[in-house]
Amino acid sequence: MQSEILEAVERNGTTWSPAVAEAFRQIYGRKHQILNPTKYHGIVKEDISYGPHERNVLDVYSPTESSTTPRPVIVYVHGGNLVAGDKVWYKGSLYANVGNYFASHGIVAVIINYRLVPDVAYPGGGDDIQMAREWVYHNISKQQSGNGDPEKVVLVGSSVGGLHIATNIYLADHSNVNSKPVFPPIAGIVYLSTPFSFDTTPEDRQTALRAYYETEDAKEIYEYSPVGLIEALSASSLVLDPRKFPCLIVLAQYDPKEIQDSTFSFIEEYRRKSPQGILPEFVVVAGHNHISHVCSIGTEDDVLGRLLREFVGKVCSRFTWKYKGKDLDA
């Protein structure tokens, strides 16, 4: 089946649409169903509410083995072009593959939903990320939540999930005292195939952008995008120093041109604003497209899974901010 997937990726190229997403969902859904009989399953707590809306819910995947040492945590945020997507994209498969995979490697995984258009407007996606982070900070250390370490949390956002993480971090920091860490604490951020800005010309894109950003003005939408937000940040902001606030940016080799273009724009602006021009980490995953790299986690194709595990291990081992249970003023 792996050769079938690679052929499908190469055949499709960089084209992306809901139909293409559904095709790969079906391919990987079948693959994970085949793996299910022997695949590790951690302890799963489903549909835990972290906010007032019906989509403010999350699942927690934790290792079955007990541990006296608090475990690192990842929070995974799905994509969906602002209007679609779910933490259970294919029951028992996607994105259970992400949760099961990290739980099997001793990492607590939190998979969240967030509000979709038309039930949310900017910066509501970022607000949902903040509420989920606060839930994790106050709850993940409990034994029933996997004994996670609330001060060693890595945010992982795929596509628009990454957009919402970036909104949460960079918009919040506009009013932050830059000498203080972001609260709740974050050990690192991973952006997977994230739209850091938008091409506003396609008609099918305009409807979602108009609804979410409540404007048709391309300049305003750009200013609200992650690239626009970091342009407005102080160069002294902690979130632009990868030594203190680690950031990993991942592209798939067959990501759409819009994702590629916005990613390089973001990296260039980040480099320009970052102290001494220090770059975030950047990796291209070969042989994958906009969603297949995430779907491949938990299969024999372990490139992205291993990359994320190594990043989590590295940043959590050197994370030094200590809150001692006290909320710092943001």
Core attributes:
330 residues; 8 strands; eight-stranded mixed β-sheet; alpha/beta; 16% strand; globular
DSSP E strands, number? 8
Helicity level: 25-40%
What is the radius of gyration computed over CA atoms, rounded to a whole number of angstroms? 19 Å
- Sum up the overall morphology in one term: globular
N-to-C CA distance: 49 Å
Q: What integer is the average pLDDT?
A: 91
- Poorly predicted regions are 323-330
Assess the beta-strand content as a share of residues. 15-25%
**Quaternary structure type:** single chain
Series of H and E elements = HHEEEHEHEHEHHHEHEHH
Structural class of the secondary structure composition?
A: alpha/beta
Count up the helices: 11
**Biggest sheet architecture:** 8 strands, mixed
Spatially, the strands of the biggest sheet line up as: 1-2-4-3-5-6-7-8
Structure report:
- There is one protein chain.
- This protein has helices at 2-12, 18-35, 96-103, 124-139, 160-172, 203-213, 218-224, 226-231, 257-273, 292-295, 303-318; strands at residues 43-49, 57-62, 71-77, 108-112, 148-158, 188-192, 247-252, 281-285.
- The chain is α/β, with parallel strands linked by helices.
- It has an eight-stranded mixed beta sheet, with helices on both faces.
- Helix 9 (257-273) links the parallel strand 7 (247-252) and strand 8.
- The longest helix has 18 residues, at 18-35.
- It is globular and about 50 Å long.
